[in-house]
């Protein structure tokens, strides 16, 4: 199974700890996560040195190639919003997770697409549990 | 002419003054802007009271009905990123404007879609001029 993990990069890294835990859960389940590096500390500097067109093409190719997309949407991001729509358009299932402490765009929480699942968590442990449960239901 | 103006609501209102000026330019040109109210001060509270599904449906209907989309992308936003992709998918021209003082997602700046124009400005006057020039070229 291949999962595209999406999170804010240039929009802010306040929730980086959660990104790293979610990616860890995916990798420990043996899932291929081509974007695993975007959870790393310092990614915004590395990303900043790459040509925009190269990043765009690489990321849409990865979305096309994945089985589903998992997005952490607690920190606003144009890129993640775009990627969610891109994946849904391709018919890929999308899971969005966000902290109950933040307000998330209603273009995400109000989207009735049947392949979109939007869940909110109180803490890191609940976020991990929601991810595991979603994947478990998806795999059966 | 009908233009969908897009900007951050729940993601933050740091650039609200620019949103209001850009909407003013559009309205003074006699353009119909169904989303003009999202530039208003206090919109995040009004928006917060609306049902997410209603906001989503209203906004995608407005995108379908518009001639083009103008987005101010200085403040990250899942909704705006989603709307940009949605409009491009429908073949609508999209103009993104952002302040040179900020880093914008490479999923926006690196997107090679022929109908997408991404421009950066140094100050409010330049933002207004870029918008007027874009519309002028679009209308001829």
Describe this structure in words.
- 2 copies of one chain form a homodimer.
- Chain A is globular.
- A 4-stranded parallel β-sheet of chain A has the order 1-2-3-4, with helices on both faces.
- Chain A is of the alpha/beta class.
- The first copy, chain A, starts with a strand and ends with a helix.
- Helices cover 47% and strands 15% of the residues of chain A.
- The longest helix of chain A has 16 residues, at 124-139.
- At the A-B interface, helix 2, helix 3, helix 4 and helix 5 of A face helix 2, helix 3, helix 4 and helix 5 of B.
Q: Which strand order do you get reading across the main beta sheet of chain A?
A: 1-2-3-4
Oligomer: homodimer
Largest sheet of chain A: 4 strands, parallel
Largest interface, chains and sizes: A-B, 41 and 41 residues
What is the residue-mean pLDDT of chain A, rounded to a whole number?
A: 96
In N-to-C order, the SSE pattern of chain A is: EHHHEHEHEH
Note poorly predicted spans of chain A. Answer: none
Features:
140 residues, alpha/beta, homodimer, 4 strands, 6 helices, four-stranded parallel beta sheet
Short description:
The structure is a homodimer of 140-residue chains. Chain A is an alpha/beta fold.
Topology:
2 copies of one chain form a homodimer.
Chain A: E1 3-6, H1 16-28, H2 43-49, H3 52-65, E2 68-72, H4 78-89, E3 94-99, H5 106-109, E4 116-121, H6 124-139
Parallel strand pairs in A: 1-2, 2-3, 3-4
């Amino acid at each position: 199974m291949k999962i595209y993990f999406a999170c804010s990069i240039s929009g802010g890294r306040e929730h980086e700890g959660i990104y790293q835990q979610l990616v860890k859960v995916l990798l420990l389940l043996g899932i291929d996560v081509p974007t695993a590096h975007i959870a790393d500390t310092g990614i915004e500097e590395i990303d900043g040195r790459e040509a925009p067109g190269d990043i765009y093409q690489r990321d849409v190719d990865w979305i096309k190639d994945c089985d589903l997309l998992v997005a952490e949407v607690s920190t606003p991001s144009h890129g993640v919003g775009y990627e969610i729509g891109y994946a849904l358009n391709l018919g890929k299932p999308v899971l969005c997770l966000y902290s109950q402490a933040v307000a998330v765009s209603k273009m995400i929480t109000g989207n009735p697409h049947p392949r979109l699942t939007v869940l909110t968590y109180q803490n890191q442990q609940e976020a991990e549990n929601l991810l595991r449960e979603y994947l478990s239901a998806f795999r059966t």
